[in-house]
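quick one, 215 residues, struct below
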Amino acid sequence: LEQSLQSLVVNSLNSPNPNAVCMEQASGIDLGCTAQDIKFDRVTGFDILDGPNLLACNCSSLATTPACASEYDIDCGVDYELGTVFGACNGGNGNDEVVVQMKVDFLVSTTRYDIGMYIATNGGSALDGQQCAVSSLQYGTYGDVQVWEVEGDTTSPNPAPDNCLDLGTTGTLRDYPFTPVTLSCTDSNEDGLLDFDIGIVWSVKKGDYDCDIGE
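---
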């Protein structure tokens, strides 16, 4: 199951694909999400990027106007409470799209390799939905967790970098920044919140895949 899915994910790691299929379609088999190795915790930052220049449209500070306000007559703290996101979705479910940029916390309980991420972009499921954005992680240290190539560690006896990034430590992967992604304006349960779903795949052993050759 893992190899069937992971081999397809790795093909997209070096060139994130905003219009890929989701996890079950990519693997060709029925999948279950039961592992607790990496768990979504919470969204810690969320920006709507609006206007022709895709500028942030959040009332996130006491600034008189947010970055995109050339198109709006907005006073943060007066017209909108701090923390309000505006300039977002218009119309009913699926009738509009919005570009979002977010930061997310993940809980990492054990070292895992060759990480791939799926984000459902049409309000469906990253597991068995029809449309997902697929990408790898970005180098860096985010809270407790370091994202790097464990296989490429030059202090190990046989370093073998493969250009597939790994979660090299455990703890909270804090404020991980996703690149901007276009989501369908979907609110299937009518709670006033934008629906999106994130799925993560990985290898339990290092050295199984080589992203340099699209394995």
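The first helix runs from residue 2 to 10.
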